[in-house]
């Protein structure tokens, strides 16, 4: 006998910023947000009214974390996958998120669209003060997962940073900020993709522990800036023993503080 009931996917309701907002995420498939998303969100440090685009937002954790910490932030979650966009919409609509729901919207669109197709999808030129992104980070030669959703979220393709930063450059206002988190081995591709679009690049290597190699890199840059590249002091997440976050990492992870740029956002900006 067949059933008319829809097949329900297993999912979890996860609390972030010590319960200040919640996110619905697929269980056992797809990309699940955690510390990476919270560290990415911490890069948005501008007070007052600000428009933010979270490209490749998944279920929306990073963008919602920005809205959670900054009361003046209007955030657009941009996600290509219909399934993950649905998770984002349902997350925003949760009763636990009522205090920020009117400042967060979801847009189902492909980040790599160009020209008129991108504008028609809802991403016009010069429309956001800040763009954040956590692009797929696994090399295509790495062992792939049989989970299609996770593979799409994690698998890097040739020209990925160029395509994503091309969109970021188009939709960001002059003097606006780009922020991303990636693997350290992507440094050269990121710098190349910034090109003449973004300057004043600041990079911070993230180490799980003081004696461990870096596993992530935080990157910020300013559209039109001519300032030079800065490598900042490394950020350590945990101490030599145990899994608890160190005080600074815990503050960033839980939205108590921002990881502000060292240099002014408007320093040496040229209109492009």
UniProtKB/TrEMBL annotation:
Keywords, comma-separated and alphabetical: Methyltransferase, S-adenosyl-L-methionine, Transferase
Methyltransferase small domain sequence ranges: 38-143
UniProt-listed SUPFAM superfamilies: S-adenosyl-L-methionine-dependent methyltransferases
A molecular function GO annotation: S-adenosylmethionine-dependent methyltransferase activity
InterPro entries listed in its UniProt record: DNA_methylase_N6_adenine_CS, SAM-dependent_MTases_sf, Small_mtfrase_dom, tRNA_Adenine-N(6)_MTase
Keyword check for Methyltransferase: yes
Keyword Lipid biosynthesis: no
UniProt-listed GO biological process terms: methylation
Domain of life: Bacteria
PANTHER family attached to this UniProt entry: TRNA1(VAL) (ADENINE(37)-N6)-METHYLTRANSFERASE
Protein name listed in UniProt: Methyltransferase
Record organism: Endobacterium cereale
């Amino acid at each position: 006998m067949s059933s008319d009931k829809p097949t329900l996917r297993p999912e979890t309701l996860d609390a972030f910023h010590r319960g200040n907002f919640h996110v619905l995420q697929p269980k056992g498939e797809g990309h699940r947000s955690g510390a990476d998303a919270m560290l990415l969100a911490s890069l948005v440090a501008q007070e007052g009214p600000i428009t933010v685009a979270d490209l490749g937002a998944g279920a929306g954790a990073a963008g919602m974390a920005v809205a959670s910490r900054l009361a003046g932030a209007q955030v657009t979650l941009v996600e290509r996958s219909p399934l993950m966009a649905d998770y984002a919409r349902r997350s925003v609509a949760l009763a636990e998120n009522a205090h920020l729901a009117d400042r967060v919207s979801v847009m189902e669109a492909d980040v790599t669209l160009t020209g008129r197709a991108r504008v028609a999808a809802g991403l016009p030129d010069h429309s956001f003060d800040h763009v954040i992104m956590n692009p797929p980070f696994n090399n295509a030669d790495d062992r792939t997962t049989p989970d299609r959703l996770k593979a799409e979220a994690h698998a890097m393709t040739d020209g990925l940073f160029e395509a994503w930063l091309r969109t970021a450059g188009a939709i960001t206002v002059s003097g606006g900020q780009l922020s991303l988190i990636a693997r350290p081995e992507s440094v050269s591709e990121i710098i190349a993709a910034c090109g003449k679009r973004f300057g004043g690049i600041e990079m911070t290597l993230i180490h799980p522990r003081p004696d461990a190699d870096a596993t992530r890199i935080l990157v910020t840059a300013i559209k039109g800036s001519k300032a030079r590249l800065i490598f900042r002091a490394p950020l350590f997440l945990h101490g030599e023993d145990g899994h608890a976050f160190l005080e600074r990492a815990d503050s960033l992870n839980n939205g108590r503080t921002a990881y502000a740029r060292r240099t002014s956002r408007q320093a040496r900006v040229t209109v492009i």
